[in-house]
Input
Amino acid sequence: MFRLTCRVAWASLVRRRTRSIVVVMMIAVSLWGLFTMEGIYGGMTEQMINSAIRSDSGHISIFAEGYRLDPDLSRQVNNVAKIESQLVHAPHVSSYVKRLKQDGLVATAHYSRGVSIIGVNLLAEEKHGKLQGYIFKGEFSFGRKDRGAIIGFKLARKLHVRIGSKIILSAQDSHGEVSSVSLRVTGVLKTYNMALDENAVFLAEKKARELLAVEEGVSQLAIILHNDSQVAELQQKLRSLFPSLEILRWDELYPALLQSRVMMDGFNLIASLLVFCVAALGIFGVMLVSVLERLREFGIMLAIGTRFSQIRNIVFVESFFLGFIGCGFGSLFGAGTLYFFKVKGLDLSLFSDAFDEFGMDAVIYAIIRPSYFITAFVAVSFATFLSVLIPLRVLKKSKPIEAINQV
Amino acid sequence: MFFGYTKSHVQAELFCIAFLLTFVFPLSAFAETAVEIINKVQSNLNGKTAVMNLSMVVKGKRATRTMKMKSYSCGDDKSFIQILYPGKDRGITFLKIDNSMWQYVPRIEKIIKIPASMMLQSWMGSDFTNDDLVKTNSLTDDYTKQLLAEIDQEYQVELLPTEEAAVVWGRIVMGVSKQFYLPTTVLYYDEDDTLIRKMIYTDVQPFGEKYYPTKWLMLPQEPEKIGKETMVEISNAVFDEDISESYFTKRALKRYSN
Amino acid sequence: MNTFLTIKHIGKTFQPDKEVEVVALRDINLDIERGAFVVLSGPSGSGKTTLLNIIGGLDDATAGEVILDGKLLTGLSEVELSGIRRDHIGFVFQAYNLIPVLTVKENIEYIMKLQGRSQQECDVRCLEVTQKLDIDMLLGKLPNQLSGGQQQRVAVARAVAATPKLILADEPTANLDSKTAESLMNLMQRLNEEEGVTIIFSSHDPLVIAKAKHSIILKDGKVIADERTG
Output
């Protein structure tokens, strides 16, 4: 009986080929659009978060107590070796780096700006967050004698410096004295992390220690884990081991980033709802007309012994066919498009100036999440079900049997 | 030594000496190195101690301000400045020791240590920065010197910062008067050899045994700053007399505020 | 008595409007034997179609009873009536009998599939019936590819294939030319004789009336003649 229902339903759709194709295409195209938007918007958000994690906070950052409110050199993390031994043996931890930070001043003959001086070990940063991937100009190196500096691209622009330009870095050292050092710009970074791009001057850790007169101790430890689901667990563990330190997750350090993820989810929901409406209206329109056209046909079927529930099933199956085929094509196109952009990236460099302002990369790599397709499938299923209820009511009320007699 | 020489030998010798005196010995002035020249300039400018009354006129694009102050300095690493005029700034004091600088603001009754971030801000609204006041001795340590030329009564010395020197200039060209070993015109260039700043020292006056330029004119050369100038005039100076060490302490900031 | 179908005091009133009442049938009483070949005739508007609908369970009578093969039809639920139509009654309408999206074979098998018969059974019965009706070469075609006469024959084949006890045919020859009509009627007669199916026609085609063995004439919703001729 089910086979017969499907046969009649399918044959009815094929008979009205153009109409069926139009609805299927409507659903497919709106789904394709939905997936593309979701994947790209999602990609943008994840890129920003990733960027912050790689270049700055890691999944977890460790600071000395009170450092965030008062980032002074006196607030250093001191028992570094002990922390390191924990991290080296922790299975979740993929990598970690140590950084020495201080606010200071950079000056050229023309301009001066307040900056964040960050002493780093380039080799460690390379393994940790692949910071070298963000090099925009120049090299990922401090030169032969560690006399080089790598600065954010916005900072470079404001100072009007090039690779090889001299910059004078001044800061208050651990004794409170103002200390200066002359460095040459060896590299320029574009991290899409606005704080770094506008303010950061990276220099060799050794040089930073000289400048700031800090022999041991670090301002920050940034940790990256293999799997971000284990972040909370590690944070708990570290907090229990080192209760005097501030141990924070990336979303606690940058709640705005988490907000953008939440916003993205909300946006996806709204977009899915829109697609749902499109699908529902499309199917509703087509099915209503199709049912009303076939009143006599249904009447005869009822007369020869078909139960109304069987007629109802035929109508349901028709609408589900429309929905599922539309969903199928939409998912296919969508997945294909997203895969393409995942691999090649969507190049919006035409708008790169606007993107730079927001601290975002103009080449966006899409992400693909099964949830996109599952949510869409559920939405379309609901849409097909709901959209056919009214036509069925109309059918029942029209008394198909009476339709037979209308010659 | 001169026994046995005839008159003609003596004449020849006299001629040689005259020749040497006229042409060769002045050339030995080149043997005086750029380093020596600059060292003399530094010691002339700073002296062992100095107490000066200064006025500073800052010409901006729209307004002109005048300030009067008194300064006490010991060598080139310690100095103390009192602002005397105008009334709203009267009582502000500055203390510089080595590379650190403190300021006392009577209105808020607070002594602030000038942090690195404020070092490049203008000092009292002039075209000088805090850093300029602090780094008066850097010429000696931070630069290699080379004599470029001798023009009329002036030496032209080029100063190039050493690799390690924490100075923003790419090059400084100083004109030094032969007569007084004081600077006449100093040109400050950035790394790309663009002229950023011009300092002109004029009106050299005697003060006791010392000669000193009493008018210092600072002319910024950057296009957006053309038209501005700061002129410092020294009205009174006493050099190399004993100054109480008490001026060069933090307590002095408040004590000598008024 | 071999009464197969009993119609007792059947009355039907329509109310197309709140004010207007139309009496389509008035106190109809009829007895029909098993294997009868009956025609209901009369001028249009006399209630033939209405009566046929009531007998077939497609419409409810306002009054009276219909008893088919000992079972009371009037008053049954929609679902029950549907089952009876499926298993015991075959319909042939004036036009548009066939499900347009299904092939001839699928159309003919349709009721049998509803009855739950196996594919094998359906194949056999279909072949049997189509050979009798001379349409076995049309099995793969769609209804819109057939002529009017062919369509009607397929409708008859469908009606008969499901082995109903009763076939109701409403003006089956109305849209056919005389030759085709003659041919169809002969077929139906043969079926009636060979399969023993009771057939009730409603028609004002004299050809049909001539073939019938039991003739009932309606006028203004009442039986004015009820004759058995064979």
In short: Chain A has two domains: 2-52+257-404, 65-244. The interface with chain C takes residues 1, 4, 7-8, 11-12, 14-15, 296-297, 300-308, 310, 401, 404-405, 407 of chain A (CB under 8 Å). Chain A has a mean pLDDT of 87.
